[in-house]
Design goal:
The chain is α/β, with parallel strands linked by helices. It contains 28 helices and nine strands. Among the domains are: about 160 residues, Rossmann fold (3-Layer(aba) Sandwich), CATH 3.40.50; about 70 residues, Helix Hairpins (Orthogonal Bundle), CATH 1.10.287; about 200 residues, no CATH class. Helix 22 crosses helix 27 and helix 25 runs antiparallel to helix 26. The strands form two sheets. Strands 2-3-4-1-5-6-8 form a seven-stranded mixed sheet, sandwiched between helices. Strands 7-9 form a two-stranded antiparallel ribbon.
Length: about 650
């Protein structure tokens, strides 16, 4: 039996999924998107269930890629039943989605999750009344405590299409009937598709174009235009207003307050985290803890142990001994040479990036399940707006200080492709990873405070300036910043473990091959002596325009392999007295803005496509050298010293 979990964001859907599946979980991208869909196997009331956790949605009239994916799964990959997971405290929002599922004609049941939190706030929901009104089973659960899961399994066998419906204005009802007559058969009702078209859903057109001739599509468009001309408001607004009115009627029928809600410690904490004054130190403390856990513990302690001890003293020496017996030098170097599959690709992927990715997945899971993630986004929304983004973009930007490769993966939390492209560009351009940052701060410590402030100022100005300009150049729409704020709660350790292990499994399957591919590319460049040719080609630019010694060219090339290697090259030059203060500042500014490391580059390709990644790199490389060269010319002309 195949079952879909559908629900609003932050209703405990992933917690319920984790409690039901426990293991045998797979995470993959929905075809043609960067949206993750999680699948697993569960036993419910003695039946074996294939369970799919769809992205959280506020509506099935798509306004984001997450909502489009959930709608497409219902449209193209129908299941035997749908479990709609709802926040029992916010019944109106849940019923707004229930009515859309009812219009689609899919068999479903309503799971009122977080029932304990609803009761603590004095909300009592009469399940029998709501079940009779909707015509589908209604059960209550507390997923974090596994309460109600047995009743959920029993109710699943009774999942059925709802008999509830929304009455729209006569003009819309008439138009929906005319459109439905011309639509092809689908796993969802024609009426639901007709209402979606009337509401202005352009994302449905590719599906229709493959099933209807152009003449019929034009006929549908004509009906939509005629109907729209009869209203002074957008049809989507009229449709949703009618749905919300019916949702409010059903909520009033089934729920009532037993007493006024009492303030709890978690609700007070939730309000403090959103306070315009007290929320700021709260935010800084959370960001600091994330950076310490991911950037310091993950990228520092764990990486140092795995890279130096496990791989440096055990795995790599053993591999060198084994593959050293290969009589063909080229094949030997392919495995354990400077650009070897074991000594570079696996060392980088497992010893360096995996600890950072693993600690990030844990940190992100805690933020996700605790309810703080939406608050973090709200706190930073105003700042991020200056770059054409909303508050959700702050998380990848901050986590980029740990590892840009990992942060590029987290851009998936952003709703639109435009926002994901913009944040990916800014990460690659101006956010140094923790390893690179540590080396650079060591070099800056030998200069004056003015030099450090100038470096920070230039990088910050570049990020905000490029972000503001790119947001106007990159086509597409930005998403509306609308968030439901869930209560602050303690994450369930079991669910956190299941999600973290599932995401690590995804990393091992999807990301590690990228490191191997990148290493093979570098091996080929080295074998054909092209790395030396690149050094010679870039030397005039580095020496004449940027005022750096010839040896600096190698540092930039190595910086593509690993960002901190490039910074370390400049550190060595400065330590040997080959760089003065101005050259140090120019070098560090350029390497900060320089091309992302090869692992991040391949992750950019995976997440955004080869064309988008190539365009970003084509912009970043000359831009970084341009900023470095102009900085050199200005400082030399003004005879600035540090």
């Amino acid at each position: 039996m195949s079952v879909l979990l559908v629900g609003n964001p932050n209703v405990g859907k992933s917690v319920l999924f984790g409690q039901l599946t426990r293991r045998y979980v797979t995470v993959s991208n929905y075809p043609g998107t960067t949206v993750e869909v999680t699948r697993g196997t569960a036993q419910m009331d003695g039946a074996r269930i294939q369970l799919t956790d769809t992205p959280g949605v506020n509506s099935l009239l798509p306004m984001s890629e997450d909502e489009r994916v959930t709608r497409d799964i219902l449209l193209s990959d129908p299941a035997d039943a749908v479990i709609q997971v709802a926040d029992a405290k916010n019944l109106k929002r849940a019923l707004f989605l229930s009515l859309q599922l009812a219009e689609m004609g899919v068999p479903f049941l309503l799971d009122l999750n977080m029932a304990d939190e609803a009761r603590s706030r004095g909300v009592e929901i009469r399940e029998d009344v709501l079940s009779e009104a909707l015509g589908v089973p209604v059960v209550s659960t507390v997923a974090t405590q596994r309460r109600g899961l047995g009743a959920l399994g029993e109710a699943l066998h009774g999942a059925r299409p709802s008999g509830s419906s929304v009455r729209y204005p006569d003009a819309i009802e008439e138009a929906a009937g005319r459109i439905a007559e011309q639509l092809p058969e689908a796993p969802v009702s024609r009426r639901a598709l007709a209402l979606t078209l009337l509401a202005g859903d352009e994302s449905l057109r590719p599906w229709l174009a493959g099933r209807l001739p152009a003449a019929e599509l034009e006929s549908l468009d004509r009906i939509v235009r005629e109907t729209s001309s009869r209203f002074g408001e957008p049809l989507g607004y009229v449709v949703n207003r009618a749905r919300m009115a019916e949702a409010e009627r059903l909520a009033a029928l089934a729920a009532h307050w037993r007493r006024a809600p009492q303030a709890s410690a978690t609700s007070v904490l939730g309000r403090l985290s959103m306070h315009p004054i007290w929320g700021v130190p709260f935010l800084l403390a959370v960001l600091f803890l994330i950076y310490e856990f991911v950037g310091v513990f993950g990228a520092g302690t764990c990486v140092e142990f795995l890279e130096s001890t496990v791989f440096g003293k055990a795995i790599n020496p053993l591999a060198t001994k084994i593959f050293g017996a290969i009589p063909v030098p080229l094949l030997r170097d392919l495995m354990v040479g400077p650009y070897g599959v074991v000594t570079m690709a696996l060392t980088y992927a497992i010893a360096i990036v995996l600890p950072i990715v693993g600690t990030f997945f844990i940190a992100f899971g805690i933020l996700e399940d605790s309810g703080y993630l939406p608050r973090l986004a709200v706190m930073m929304n105003r700042v991020m707006k200056t770059m054409g983004l909303n508050g959700k973009a702050v998380l990848p930007m901050v986590l980029g200080l740990g590892c840009d490769t990992m942060a590029t993966m987290t851009t998936r939390i952003l709703e639109t492709r435009k926002e994901r492209l913009l944040v990916t560009l800014l990460l690659a351009l101006g956010v140094p990873c923790s390893a690179q940052l540590g080396v650079m701060l060591g070099m800056l410590s030998g200069l004056s405070a003015g030099a450090m402030l100038l470096w920070v100022g230039i990088v910050t100005a570049v990020i905000f300036g490029v972000g503001a300009i790119a947001s106007r150049v990159i086509p597409g729409d930005s998403s509306d910043f609308i968030l439901e704020l869930p209560p602050i709660r303690v994450p369930a350790l079991g669910n956190l473990a299941v999600k973290t292990l599932a995401r690590i499994e995804w990393y091992l399957k999807e990301a590690v091959p990228l490191f191997i591919l990148g290493t093979l590319l570098l091996f080929a460049l080295d074998a054909f002596h092209l790395i030396g040719a690149l050094e010679k080609l870039a030397s005039p630019l580095v020496v004449k325009f940027m005022g750096l010694p010839r040896e600096a060219t190698s540092a930039f090339i190595v910086g593509f392999l690993r960002r901190d290697y490039g910074a370390a090259g400049f550190f060595t030059l400065a330590r040997d007295g080959k760089l003065d203060a101005v050259q140090i500042l120019v070098a560090l500014t350029t390497i900060t803005l320089f091309i992302p490391c090869i692992a991040n580059f391949f992750m950019m390709i995976k997440e955004q496509g080869l064309r988008a990644a190539a365009v970003m790199v084509a912009f970043i490389v000359p831009f970084a050298f341009g900023v470095g060269g102009m900085l050199n010319l200005i400082l030399r002309a003004l005879k600035v010293t540090f």
